Amino acid sequence: MTPSDLEQPVLLSVLGFGFVTAFLHAALPTHWLPFVLVGRGQRWSLPQVLGAVTAAGLAHIASTAVVGGLIVAAGLVMDQWIAGLLPWASAGLLFLFGAFYLGRAVLRAPIMAGGPSLALSEPTVSHAAAFWGLVVMMALSPGEVLLPVYLSQATEGPLVLAALTVVFAAGTVAGMALFTLLARAGWSVLRLERWARYEGVVLGLALILIGLLVVLRQH
Questions:
Q1: Measuring CA to CA, which residue among 19, 61, 31 is closest to residue 182?
Q2: Considering the entire predicted model, what is its pTM?
Q3: How far is Cα 124 from Cα 21, in angstroms, rounded to an integer?
Q4: What is the C-alpha separation between 63 and 166, in angstroms, rounded?
Q5: Which pLDDT band holds residue 50 (cuts at 50, 70, 90)?
Q6: DSSP 41-62
Q7: How far apart are CA 188 and CA 39, in angstroms?
Q8: Is residue 140 a contact partner of residue 62, using CB atoms and an 8 Å limit?
Q9: CB atoms within 10 A of CB 12
Q10: 175-199 burial code (b ≥16 CB/10 A, e <16)
Q11: Plot region of 178 (φ>0 → left; ψ -120 to 50 → alpha; else → beta)
């Protein structure tokens, strides 16, 4: 079946629902807070952060499309196996990021004994490693909220599923970018720069906490 086989109002409503669902699921902290925190730790500019958001959002939807296709093709048994494996890998990456920043902050503490400095230090992890770490983290965490939408349209043919994937990508990237921008703006408004000397500890603990939330969602 092709999109032309569906009544246009029905198809538009399905795609509209898909966009709204994808946008709202991007409101989860795991979809924007790591970018704010890592971007802050790496001293990224806004274009750099949005570039990471876009790449990671597209990777997130690509893995969702792959998992959705596998579920449609192989049934719910495959769903249970994949859904149980990949979130743990995503949580593991969050733990690694958090442990790195936390460990760096603890090791640097003696250097600041002579008095706190509000100047932000240069990141010690490469920008490429931080960028691809975020992309892989999102790729390993397919959007389980979106999978039922794929299943509901499984009999409508590959073109409808492809259109859904495009809509999912647009909604997810738009949502991730918006919430990231809002969070960055809030950071500036609250003048959190005054807490710069505690930044590494806060950054590390926050990423580890997000990883714990991912794990808790599996129970």
A1: 31
A2: 0.68
A3: 37
A4: 13
A5: very high
A6: HHT--HHHHHHHHHHHHHHHHH
A7: 13
A8: no
A9: 11
A10: bbbebbbebbeeeeeeeeeeebbeb
A11: alpha
Per-residue tokens: 192: 């959190």
Residues 148 and 24: beta-carbon distance below 8 Å:
no
Residue type, 12: L
Distances (CA, A) of 142 to 146, 151, 163: 9, 14, 18
* pLDDT number for residue 116: 38
